[in-house]
Write a structure and sequence with these properties.
Elements (H helix, E strand, L loop, with lengths): L6 E5 L3 H10 L5 E5 L2 H10 L5 E5 L7 H10 L8 E5 L7 H5 L4 E4 L4 H13 L2 H4 L6 H10 L5 E6 L5 E6 L1 H6 L4 H10 L9 H17 L3 E8 L5 E13 L3 E8 L1 H9 L16 H14 L5 E8 L2 H8 L1 H19 L4 E4 L4 E7 L5 H13 L9 E7 L7 H13 L9 E3 L2 H22 L3 E10 L4 E13 L3 E3 L5 H7 L2 H21 L7 E5 L1 H4 L4 H11 L7 E6 L2 H4 L1 H13 L4 E6 L5 H7 L4 E5 L11 H15 L3 E5 L4 H10 L3 E3 L7 E2 H10 L4
Helix pairs in contact: 2-3, 13-14, 14-15, 19-21
The structure holds ligand C2E and magnesium ion (MG) (2 copies).
Length: 690
C-alpha cells in the first residue's frame, strides 16, 4: 500500500501539538486525531488497520501509558507501531519501552527527525515492526530510568526453575526491604522470587509459563510475603523478552498506582476502587461472601443502587462533577454501613451493600441519598434508585444476589417518585414471564401468531361506524390470546416493535385491499405507530411502499401516534408528523391527556384527530371538574379544526355526556369491543358503514 493511503493517528490532549504534528506530516493523506486515550482506543478498535500512532504521554482520562498497555494486550492492536511523544526524557520510563513503544520523540519536535521516523516505520515490512519479544537492549535502556518503578526481571531456566535477574529498589521496598538492604541484596544477586510463598508459587510459575508461551504482555497478580510477614498482592503487567535472542526473560511491572489504595485497606491486600476509595466490585464480592458466611444464621439484605441517567450528568456537567458525585455517594454510603456490613462500587454508577436485616434502615438510606442530592449545589435533581434483595439463601452466589437486587431496581428505573423496590417471588415470576415473551416473539411473527383485531369507531352524528382501529393480539399456541398491554412496552424497549408495527400495517392494508376487491364498502382503519417507529427516517417511505403494494391511497390508512412521544422529542415529532401529513396521511393523537404536555402538543403540531381516553376521567360526574376539563378540550379541538374521538366509552351516561359536549366519534366497549376480522365483517353486516 502506498504510504499516502495509510492511516496515521495523532493522540495528544494539546491541540497545538496536534496541529503541529499534522503540519509536519501534512502530505500523508489520512491523518486522524484523538484528544485522549479513550478516544484513541475507540478509534483504533474501529480502525485496527491504522499504520502508525503518535502517542503523547500525559493526557486526561486515559494516558499514553495505559493506551499502550491496552494496545499491547489487544490481539488486534498489538502490532501497531507507536511513536511516543514526550515533554522530557524523564517521562519515558522503562514501562513504555518494555511495552514496545517503537520510538521516542521528545518535545519540542525536531521536524525532520520526526518525518524520517514516520517514513521509516511506515515503509518497514510488517514483520520487522512486530513488537513481540523485546531485546536485552531495551531492558538495559530502561534500567537507568526505571529505578522508581516496581520491576523485577526473571529468567526462566531450562530445568523449569525461575531465577531473579534484576529488580528495582521500589520492587524490593514492596517486599518490605529498606534502601540499604536493597543495595546489599542487589550486590549479592539475591533471588526475590523466594518472597512468593510456597502455596502461591505453582500458580505464579504457571502464569509466567503462559506468558512465555503467549509472548504477549499479560496482567496478573503476584502474592508476596513481605519482610514483616504481611501478605501483599501486587497487580502486575508481565512482559516477555528473549535475552540475546534466546534466553527467555519475564519482566514484571507492578501497578504501583493501585498499591497506594491497597495500603489504605489496612494491609488487607484487597483492592479498593481507585476513584471512591471503597471496595471495588471484586473486593465487595469477597467481603460480602465473608459477611454472609459469618451471618448465615441471621436474615440479611443486599441492596444495589444507581444514579438515574448518570450519563446525562457527565455530559452536562463534565466527568469531574460526575466523579465527585460518585465519591460523595460512596462516602455517604460507607458512613451508613460502617460497622454494620460491607459496601462497594460494583459498576460505573452502581453501588452495593449488604447488612443484617435488623440493621437495615431503608428510610435512613433514602434520606442520606436525598440529602446528598439537595447539597450538591447542582441545578439538577439527583435521583437514586435502590433494589433490595432480602437474602433467601445466604450460600448463594453474591453475584446472583446482586442480579436479584438489580432486577428489583430495574422495575423502578426511570420512576421519579418511587426510589426503591423489593425483590420478591411475584416479581421473579413476572420477569420470567417477560423473558418468555421475549424468547417467543420472533417465532410468533414468522408463524403469523400476531393477529389483527378491529375495534369499530362510531359516529355520534351519523350513528354509524365511520372507521376502526387496528389492535394487535398475540394468539399464543400455549397461553391463548395475549393482550398488547403485556408485550408492547417490552417490544418498544428492545425495538422489536419496529417489525411488529410494520407487520400490523401490512395486515390492515391487506384487509382494506381485500374489501375493495370484494366490492365491499370502504372503511378507514387507523393503525398505531409506536414512538420508536415515529422517529425512523424511512417511516414515510415504508408506509407508502405498503400502500403501493396493495394499490391503496393514504386516505384509508390513518396513523395514531401517542401523545407521550411529544415528551420524548417534541422537535422530531413536529417534523415527523409534518412529513406524514404531507404524504397524505391523517395523523391522530392517541391517548390525549395521558402525558404532561398535552396542550403544548396541540399548540405546536397541526394534527387531524384527537383521541381522548375516557379511562383517565374515571367516575366522571356531569358537574365535576373532570367534566369541565373534557368540555374545554373538546372545544379547543373544534376550534383547531380537529375531529374528536372519545376512547374507552363504556356507559350510556358517558356517551350522552360526550354527545352533548359536541364530541364527534366514540370508540369503546359500550359500542363494540375489538374483534377478529370475521366477527368484524358480521358486525358491519348489521351496522353498515355510511
Ligand atoms: P390504544 O391505541 O389507546 O388502543 C385502545 C385500547 O383501549 C385498546 O386496548 C382497546 O381494547 C381499549 N379499549 C377500547 N375501548 C375500551 C373501553 O371501553 N374500556 C376499556 N377498558 N378499554 C377499551 P388494547 O387493544 O389492549 O391495546 C392497548 C394498547 O396497546 C393500545 O392503546 C396501543 O397503544 C397498543 N397497541 C395495540 N396494538 C398495537 C400495535 O399494533 N402497535 C402498537 N405500536 N401499539 C399497539
Ligand atoms: Mg391507538
Ligand atoms: Mg388510545
Amino acid at each position: 500500500m502506498d504510504n499516502m493511503e495509510k492511516k496515521l493517528l495523532i493522540v495528544d490532549d494539546d491541540d497545538t501539538s496536534r496541529s503541529l504534528l499534522r503540519q509536519v506530516l501534512g502530505d500523508y493523506a489520512h491523518i486522524y486525531e484523538a484528544a485522549d486515550g479513550v478516544e484513541a482506543l475507540a478509534f483504533l478498535q474501529r480502525n485496527p488497520d491504522t499504520a502508525l500512532v503518535f502517542l503523547d504521554f500525559l493526557m486526561p482520562r486515559m494516558d499514553g501509558m495505559e493506551l499502550l498497555v491496552r494496545m499491547r494486550l489487544s490481539p488486534k492492536l498489538h502490532e501497531i507501531p507507536v511513536i511516543m511523544l514526550s515533554a522530557s526524557p524523564e517521562d519515558v520510563n522503562c514501562r513504555a519501552r518494555v511495552l514496545g513503544a517503537t520510538r521516542f520523540v521528545y518535545k519540542p519536535y525536531r521536524t525532520p527527525l520526526l518525518r524520517q521516523m514516520a517514513d521509516e516505520l511506515l515503509s518497514l515490512p510488517k514483520e520487522e515492526t512486530e513488537i513481540a519479544p523485546g531485546s536485552l537492549d531495551a531492558f538495559v535502556f530502561s534500567r537507568s530510568q526505571a529505578l522508581d518503578s516496581g520491576i523485577i526481571a526473571l529468567e526462566l531456566q531450562d530445568d523449569g526453575s525461575i531465577g531473579t535477574l534484576y529488580f528495582t529498589p521500589t520492587y524490593a521496598m514492596l517486599c518490605g526491604y529498606s534502601a540499604r538492604e536493597y543495595a546489599a541484596l542487589a550486590a549479592a544477586g539475591a533471588d526475590l522470587s523466594t518472597t512468593i510463598p510456597k502455596e502461591h508459587f505453582d500458580s505464579f510459575r504457571m502464569s509466567v509459563g503462559m506468558l512465555a508461551e503467549e509472548k504477549m504482555p499479560m496482567a496478573f497478580y503476584v502474592h508476596v510475603q513481605r519482610q514483616d510477614r504481611q501478605m501483599q498482592t501486587l497487580s502486575c503487567l508481565g512482559v516477555f523478552f528473549t535475552m540475546n535472542g534466546e534466553r527467555p526473560v519475564v519482566c514484571l511491572i507492578v501497578d504501583t498506582q493501585d498499591l497506594e489504595t491497597e495500603h489504605g485497606a489496612a494491609g488487607s491486600g484487597e483492592k479498593l476502587d481507585r476513584l471512591t476509595g471503597i471496595p471495588s466490585r471484586e473486593t465487595f464480592f469477597h467481603a460480602a461472601r465473608r459477611f454472609f458466611d459469618e451471618h448465615s444464621e441471621e436474615k440479611c439484605v443486599l441492596v444495589t443502587f444507581d444514579i438515574d441517567r448518570f450519563k446525562v450528568i457527565n455530559d452536562v456537567y463534565g466527568t469531574q462533577v460526575g466523579d465527585s458525585i460518585l465519591v460523595q455517594l460512596a462516602a455517604a454510603t460507607a458512613r451508613e454501613i460502617v460497622g454494620k456490613g460491607v459496601c462497594g462500587r460494583i459498576g460505573g454508577d452502581v453501588f452495593a451493600f449488604c447488612v443484617k436485616e435488623e440493621d437495615f434502615d431503608l428510610e435512613t438510606i433514602l434520606q442520606s441519598q436525598r440529602f446528598l442530592s439537595d447539597n450538591l449545589g447542582l441545578a439538577y435533581n439527583l435521583v437514586i434508585h435502590n433494589g433490595v434483595y432480602p437474602v433467601a439463601d445466604p450460600k448463594a452466589d453474591v453475584s446472583t444476589m446482586c442480579d436479584r437486587a438489580n432486577l428489583a431496581r430495574s422495575t423502578v428505573k426511570g420512576n421519579y417518585t418511587k426510589r426503591y423496590a423489593y425483590y420478591d417471588e411475584p416479581m421473579r415470576a413476572e420477569i420470567l414471564a417477560e423473558q418468555e415473551i421475549l424468547n417467543d416473539m420472533q417465532k410468533a411473527l414468522e408463524s403469523g401468531a400476531f393477529v389483527l383485531y378491529l375495534q369499530p369507531i362510531y359516529s355520534l352524528n351519523f350513528e354509524k361506524p365511520v372507521g376502526a382501529e387496528a389492535l394487535v393480539r398475540w394468539n399464543h399456541p400455549e397461553k391463548g390470546i395475549i393482550e398488547p398491554g403485556r408485550f408492547i412496552s417490552l417490544f418498544e424497549h428492545n425495538r422489536f416493535i419496529t417489525n411488529l408495527d410494520h407487520y400490523m400495517w401490512e395486515l390492515a392494508c391487506r384487509y382494506l385491499a381485500d374489501r375493495r376487491d370484494r366490492g365491499l364498502a370502504q372503511i378507514p382503519i387507523s393503525v398505531n405507530v409506536s414512538r420508536i417507529n415515529l422517529f425512523q427516517p424511512d417511516l414515510v417511505s415504508d408506509l407508502t411502499e405498503i400502500l403501493q403494494k396493495y394499490d391503496l391511497t393514504p386516505a384509508l390508512l390513518r396513523l395514531e401516534i401517542t401523545e407521550t412521544a411529544y415528551m420524548d422529542d417534541p422537535t422530531q415529532l413536529v417534523t415527523a408528523s409534518a412529513k406524514l401529513r404531507k404524504a397524505g396521511f391523517k395523523v391522530y393523537v392517541d391517548d390525549f391527556g395521558s402525558g404532561y404536555s398535552s396542550l403544548h402538543m396541540l399548540k405546536d403540531i397541526p394534527l387531524d384527530v384527537l383521541k381522548l381516553d375516557m379511562r383517565f376521567l374515571a367516575d366522571m360526574e356531569p358537574s365535576s371538574r373532570a367534566a369541565t376539563v373534557l368540555l374545554g378540550v373538546i372545544r379547543i379541538a373544534q376550534n383547531l379544526g380537529m375531529i374528536t374521538v372519545a376512547e374507552g366509552v363504556e356507559t350510556q351516561f358517558q356517551l350522552e355526556f360526550l354527545r352533548s359536549a359536541g364530541c364527534d366519534n366514540i370508540q369503546g366497549f359500550y359500542y363494540a369491543k375489538p374483534m377478529p376480522i370475521d366477527e368484524f365483517e358480521l358486525f358491519l353486516d348489521t351496522s353498515p358503514v355510511i
